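ok here's Phosphotriesterase:
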Amino acid sequence: MRRVRTVLGDIRPEELGVCDAHDHLFLRSPRLPGQELDDVPAARAELAAFRAAGGAAVAQWTPYGMGRRAADLPALSRATGVRIVCATGLHQAAHYAPEVLEELSGDRLAELFVAELTEGIGTTGVRAGLIKVAGGFHGLDAHARRTMTAAAEAHHATGAPIAVHLELGTGGPDVLDLLCGELGVPGERVILGHLNRFPDPVVHREAAAAGCWLAFDGPSRAHHATDWRMPEAVRALAEAGFGDRLLLGGDTVTAGARSVDGGPGMPYLLRRVRRRLAAAVGAELVERMLGEHPGRAFGADWK
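and the structure:
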C-alpha cells in the first residue's frame, strides 16, 4: 500500500493535503554566499504563513550536505501543523566542497541514499521521503550520471520517488534517457523540476508521455518565463491529455525570497499562482495539482 514518508512518519497519500511540491525551508550552498536559509524561527514563520494561506504540506528538496537541518523538521511540522517531506540525494558538484564528494566515492552514494530513506538521516531518526538529484545545462556531466545511477539503485531498493533539478529547465530528454531508459526507473516515479523555465511544449509532452511528473515550480525571475508562460503550458498539457501529471511548487532558495522577509515565499503559490492558473485551466484541475497529485507523486510502495 502506498504511503508518503513525512518527517513525522508515513501517511496515506490522500492525507497529505494542499502541498507545495518543491520548496526549501533550509538550504546552504557556496554558490549562494550570504543568502543561506538557516534560520529556524524564520522557517517556522514561513510555514505558519503557508498554513494560514491554506497550505497543508511541503516537500523540501534540500539534499545531503546542503544544510537541510533534518533534526529541526519534526518540531517545525508539529508546531505549524504542516506536513514535511524531507530529501536525501545530491545536487550538482558545484554545491559541495571537493572533500565532501570524495567521501562519497564508489558505491557509498547509493548506500547513503538507502540508509537515509529507510533508517534515518544521521542520528535524527528522520527518514527521507524522496531522492533529489540534478542535471546540467542541456545535458548530463559525469557527476550527474553518477548521482542519478545511485538514485536509481536506491529507488529500486526502496521504491522512493526521484526528484530532478533541471538546470534552467533544460536537459529533460537526457534525464529521461538515463533514468527511465538505461536505469529502468518507471516514469511515474520521476519528478522533473523547472521545466517551466524552458517552456518547450514538445519536451513537456515527451516527459508527460513517459509518465513523469512535471513540477511547475518557482515564481518568475527576470530571466525566467515561469509565471507568464505557465498558464499556457499547463493548458496545452491538459488539452493533450496530460493534466494528471502536473505539480506546483514555490522553490524558495534564499532568505530574501521568504514571504516573512519581503519576498513571495511559500504563500505566493496559493495567493497568486493558484488564482492565475485557475483562470486559465479551471479551479478543479488546479486543486488536483495542489492536492491529489502530490500525494500520488510522493507516495511509494516502500520496501
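+1. The chain is about 40% helix and 15% strand.
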